[in-house]
Specification:
This protein has 405 residues and is α+β, with helices and mostly antiparallel strands. It has helices at residues 3-6, 85-109, 133-148, 160-164, 173-176, 230-250, 258-293, 313-326, 357-368, 389-404; strands spanning 12-22, 27-31, 48-50, 53-61, 64-69, 78-83, 113-118, 123-127, 153-159, 181-187, 193-196, 211-219, 222-229, 296-298, 301-308, 331-339, 342-349, 371-374, 378-383. Strand 10 and strand 11 form a beta hairpin. 32% of the residues are buried.
Length: 405
């Protein structure tokens, strides 16, 4: 017997164990009646206790409600079933709030609910129509107005055939032609919502407390709404306010002025990046001239092997590009810089040079226990350790020996 429908406020009952089935790491208990709602209709399962054994979850299999516990029970035993009330209130609030949002999205904008998901920390509704910011605000205000009006929520049980003739927001196709009982939920007699549903709901909308749309994303041509109700909405608002206040203080402004402060920071950052890029290119130009003037000449080719303490891996690319552009002779350049937790390296050569940069990278990898690769004219890699002055000399001599061959 599903007491959560007949007596939705009942939190405890006695029951008789009808079956006990051994599962992987639990026991599935079947009772003659229960106050624990099984996972169904997009709503999470209730939790609670059978005597002193915790009910981890409940589900419906072959028409029977299975209570998954960590201990077995003897068939025929009379037990006490107790509900985890806070969890039930949370699930009921989210489910009732979903009906309010879905019903009003349909009535205000003709948007159909095509998906609903409830998790322990968030809920989503998928609508087949996109809603812009103004429409989302209108929907949220209307939903909370319905909550504040404390409208009645009622239920009707009819056959699927009878339900198919009723003006409902939603009726699953598989239910429209069945003779089995179908449960219909009405909010304010249908003025807010009317649809088939097997979940738990409050007796009136006021118990939902508040409905907060926390995010909205484009989804399959429509929109996915993330929302919270009841205590979840309050906690989300508290967390969001704390984050906004903290950020506003960092900017020495108010939460209301935070978007303006962030926009200014983004503009300043963009300008600073552009200035850094320009100066980096100028430094690369000057550094390339110095390196080329000091380069080792080997068989009409220039050889450069250099470790930089103050450059980053992103600086090596423009520098190597400048070296290739400015060199009037064939060139091989092997450049190192200190990276996070080790050394990064980049190597380039002029077209037609005897030494392949892929082969040179393999040699550097072997010398430094590094990883990397590339093409005949370009390669790069990294090592978790530093490169020594002796290794720089060794690698320069290796390049020179290949160029002389």
């Amino acid at each position: 017997m599903e007491l959560y429908y007949q007596h939705p406020m009942l939190s405890e009952c006695s029951a008789i164990v009808l079956d006990c089935i051994k599962c992987d790491n639990a026991f599935a208990i079947v009772l003659d009646r229960t106050v624990i709602f099984p996972e169904s209709g997009g709503q999470l399962s209730d939790t609670g206790f059978i005597d002193e054994s915790e009910v981890l979850r409940a589900g419906i299999v072959d028409g029977r409600i299975l209570h998954y516990c960590d201990t077995p029970f003897e068939i025929g035993r009379t037990v006490t079933v107790r509900l985890d009330i806070p969890a039930r209130l949370d699930h009921t609030a989210q489910h009732t709030g979903e009906h309010i949002l879905s019903g009003l999205a349909f009535k205000l904008f003709g948007a159909h609910n095509v998906g609903f998901h409830m998790a322990k920390d968030y809920c989503t509704i998928d609508l087949d129509r996109f809603l812009d910011e103004a429409e989302l605000i209108r929907l949220q205000l209307a939903a909370n107005a319905a909550v504040q009006a404390d409208l009645p929520i009622t239920f009707q049980t009819v056959s699927g055939t009878e339900a198919g003739a009723l003006p409902l927001r939603k009726l699953a196709d598989k239910l429209s032609n069945t003779t089995e009982d179908v449960r219909i939920v009405y909010i304010d007699g249908g003025s807010i919502d009317s649809c088939t549903c097997c979940g738990t709901h409050f007796a009136s909308t006021g118990s939902v407390g508040a409905i907060l749309i926390t995010d909205a994303q484009k989804y399959k041509g429509g929109i996915r709404l993330f929302f919270s109700c009841h205590e979840r909405a309050i906690r989300h608002s508290i967390d969001e306010h704390r984050i906004l206040t903290s950020l506003a203080r960092r900017f020495s402004t108010s939460a209301a002025e935070l978007p303006t402060a962030v926009s200014k920071l983004q503009s300043d950052l963009s300008s600073a990046r552009q200035e850094i890029k320009s100066k980096s290119l100028l430094i690369s130009e000057l550094l390339a001239c110095t390196l080329l003037s000091d380069a080792r000449l080997v068989s009409s080719a220039l050889c450069i092997v250099k470790l930089f303490d103050s450059l980053t891996a992103s600086d090596l690319k423009p520098l190597s590009d400048r070296l290739l552009e400015k060199s009037e002779s064939p060139l091989v350049a092997l450049l190192f810089c200190k990276g996070a937790g080790g050394t990064e390296y980049r190597m380039v050569c002029s077209p037609g040079v005897k030494l392949s940069m892929r082969d040179l990278c393999s040699a550097v990898n072997a010398a430094l226990d590094g990883k990397g690769g590339g093409s005949p004219t370009f390669a790069q890699g990294k090592s978790s350790r530093s490169v020594t002055s002796d290794e720089l000399v060794m690698l320069e001599n290796y390049i020179a020996s290949v160029l002389k061959a």
